[in-house]
Amino acid sequence: QVQLVESGGGLVQPGGSLRLSCAASGFTLDYYAIGWFRQAPGKEREGVSCISNINGRTDYTDSVKGRFTISGDKAKNTVYLEMNNLTPDDTAVYYCATRLTTACPIEPEYWGQGTQVTVSS
After folding, report:
1. Hey, which residues does 100 pair with through a beta bridge?
2. Can you say whether residue 12 is alpha, beta or left, with left for phi > 0 and alpha for psi between -120 and 50 degrees?
3. What is the mean pLDDT of residues 67-93?
4. Among residues of the chain, what percentage have pLDDT more than 90?
5. What is the per-residue DSSP string for 29-81?
6. Residue 98, class by beta-carbon neighbours within 10 Å (0-12 exposed, 13-18 middle, 19+ buried)?
7. Which of 29, 34, 42, 46 is the most exposed place for a label (fewest CB within 10 A)?
8. Element (H, E) at 116
9. What confidence tier does 66 reach under pLDDT thresholds 50, 70, 90?
10. CB burial class (10 A; 0-12, 13-18, 19+) of residue 89?
11. What is the mean pLDDT of the chain?
């Protein structure tokens, strides 16, 4: 049974940092792509970043390039999203997702429950 569990969200001041975790179970990350998505209030869900664990290739949406870093720890079967220099525009519920395919971008089939990130002073 494929399961994704996010953690690491919270309240942070503008300019601060957070690291989100996506713990996977029911499959091995080694061969699959994992994406991070976010949905802000009143807005559509958008793709933030994606990692193809088979070759390490990463993709980012333009608004987070240079600030966010996605990485995978195969030993822990976990994908991380390191977020730096956060702004109020980054406030959203963040989800990790997969389709059990190898390449990015992905059209997710499996979703985690989400973790809230709030950037506010």
Report:
1. none
2. beta
3. 97
4. 92
5. GGG-EEEEEEE-TTS--EEEEEEETTTTEEEE-GGGTTTEEEEEETTTTEEEE
6. buried
7. 42
8. strand 115-119
9. very high
10. exposed
11. 96
One-letter amino acid at 11 equals L
Residues in the chain: 121
Q: In whole angstroms, what is the distance from residue 111 CA to residue 93 CA?
A: 12
| Residue type at 69 in one-letter notation | T
Q: How far is CA 26 from CA 34, 40, 56, 106, 113, in A?
A: 14, 29, 21, 19, 16
Pairing of strands 10-12, 115-119: parallel
Report how far residue 63's alpha carbon sits from residue 58's, in angstroms, rounded to the nearest whole number. Answer: 15
β-partners of residue 4 are 24
Query: What's the pLDDT score for residue 75?
Result: 94
Closest to 94 (Cα-Cα) out of 66, 68, 113: 113
Start-to-end C-alpha separation, the chain: 40
| Residue 84's pLDDT band (cuts 50, 70, 90) | very high
